[in-house]
Amino acid sequence: MLNFNLPLITTILKFLSILLESKMETKFMGMYPGACTVALRRVMDAMSLFYENRSAAHRRKHFKVIQCPRPGLCFVFHGMILMACEHFVIDFLTKQGSEICEECDVLLQIGSRLPQNYITRNSRLKGKWGPEENSSYLTFQLNRGKSFWMQILLTEECFFISVNGYHFAKYIHRLPYRWLEAVDVLGDVSDIVIDTYYVSEYPIRLTHSLPQPIPHLTKLQRDEQNTETEWLVLSSLAKMSSKKFLYHPSLPLPFYGKLLDENVLIEGSALRIEGRVRLMPQRFSIAFQKGQEIWPQPAVSFYFSPCFLRSRNDKIGTAIITRRAYLNGEWVNCTSSRLNTSLRPGGAFVIVIVCRDSYYELFVNNRSLFHFKYQMKPDCVDIVNIRGDIKLWEVVVESNTSYKKPRVRTAMERAIGAWKRSEIPQLQI
Predict the structure, then answer these.
(1) Annotated domain spans of the chain
(2) How far is CA 123 from CA 34, 37, 163, 202, 358, in A?
(3) Would the pLDDT of 154 be above 70?
(4) For the whole model, what pTM was predicted?
């Protein structure tokens, strides 16, 4: 007699029924990668359920989508956050007209939780919610008693979410965006205004989020400060590591710096970035790009991003370093490697990116880390984009830098070095 594993069979049947109910065929999943989360749907956790019930009692705005949902459709939300605000949500619905909306599928719910200082993203299908997303490069931007401004852009692959003029996160489609019929705003907000129109660029910049000019430091100015480049780096590190500097005002992130005509990057010039890694970092990034938009993706001459490791066996300062460029609609020359750097949680850093004749050379605290061959000439770059888990204090362009190219040792010098390393232990004996 066959021995059936009933719990396993029950689980398989439940999974298949979910797929059948939601009509998620293989072709559909290929078109919408986020749709695979249909197998992970669950009942809301206690905190989310509390906020859901609280917000449902305060429906502030219901908006029926008249335009055809297609890539480029942009929603702009503006309103006032109440002084007693705990939570508010924006729901993109597939079916409009229900007060409670228990049967509505939700393409995207953006939930702003002010006590916890984060913004959640999720979808609901057949009354069940998928895995919640709540991470972002951008720090929390919403404050009680102040107005807020959100832009949500619909694209073929995802929703782009901007808060107060800064790109906040993207949300990969889990359901077909063509199902969109209505938008609800619920919770502790007032004076809600919703606008829709089609755009060719994202995000819409507000006055405070426009790129700021990057100052230019000439060799003469550096000499007046007392200065060889190596000593300038050591002096900056000592200054940033002092206790007095802990509360020094920092530049807002994400940082968009504009390279003016007189400080464009050419051979011999360099970009110097001074800051501090946060205590519990995940990653940060530096991009040399042509254009300030997030969508469509601009051309990127150089992209550098350290991802900090969490393994117990990894040394402090070890990171996975990614570098690449974006040209003609695709990422090229992509390289990721595990490198031991002086970038440490809570530690100050000076990153210098020098333009050589055919490549970028990146220094971290006076140590040359790697070279990156040009995929696009640096003089085409007009925007420096810096974001992630750091505090940023200074970004300047230096001309006629004295960062020396590392001298390549001859075969004889390498042989002598190897001989000395082998001889030293014998001498010590």
Answers:
(1) 40-206, 211-398
(2) 10, 9, 20, 23, 47
(3) yes
(4) 0.77
